[in-house]
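sorry for the late reply, my laptop died twice this morning and i had to redo everyting from scratch. anyway the thing you sent over, i finally got around to it. pasting the sequence first so we're on the same page, its 257 residues, then the predicted structure underneath. double check i copied it right bc i was rushing
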Amino acid sequence: MEKEGNSRQGIQVISRAVKVLRALEGRPEGLSLSAIAKEVNLPRSTVQRIVGALSSEGFLISASPTSRVRLGPSLVSLGSAAKADIDRVIIPHMKKLSAEVEETVDLSVQDGTSMIFIDQVVADSQKLRAVSAVGDAFPIHTCANGKAILAKMRDSEVEELLTLSALNQLTTFTVTDIKQLKAEIDKVRKKGVAFDREEHCEGVCATGISIDDPYGRNIAISIPVPSVRFNRNKRVIADKLIEYKAIIEKALGATLQ
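ok and here's the structure:
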């Protein structure tokens, strides 16, 4: 019984530490201990002990003279290892998906109000193809992968994020009205996939879907298509994305077993 109790206590400590780290995600300016305690609903004294332990390992560092803390450099190496695992598991499936639909497949991750393209499989079978460069950042409201990520969030989170975004109009088709965007996000939740109908770049459409990442990042795969062949292929592409979402998530889960 003592061993079981210690095990439960250890799991609780890890869970609390993760909550503290997540509270600091996307907060480069850091948070005070009191702010973290409020965010994770824990006593300040408990947060202080957790922060002390995480800081000793380099997972947190001081953000200001006023005792704020932020995520530290040790997380970078862990993030790099996670990225390597993601590439190792996801890219082979992206290659198969690309071969089946004969289109380029992109992998992207949310960074605040943007989606960053972090990997890609280019389809060479098409003379006319849509290709974005790895490292490109698209405003989250203008792209299929961004809308797929927004659909995973609670309404309050979506509204908060879209309020922070400039909602710039990149083409005549870009949706910049928050109510209209939220209505479209509701459709994504029902259909499971998101569409970009020339909203980021005229002449280019895309279909995107979110991937449940065991490392906690908001990632998505998307398939950009020249608008001239989008409508006749979008249903097939959407069905394939739903199929491969299940395959990839199962493969990612298997890496943790």
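Residues 76-254 form a domain with the Beta-Lactamase fold (CATH 3.30.450.40).
thats about all i looked at so far, will dig more tmrw
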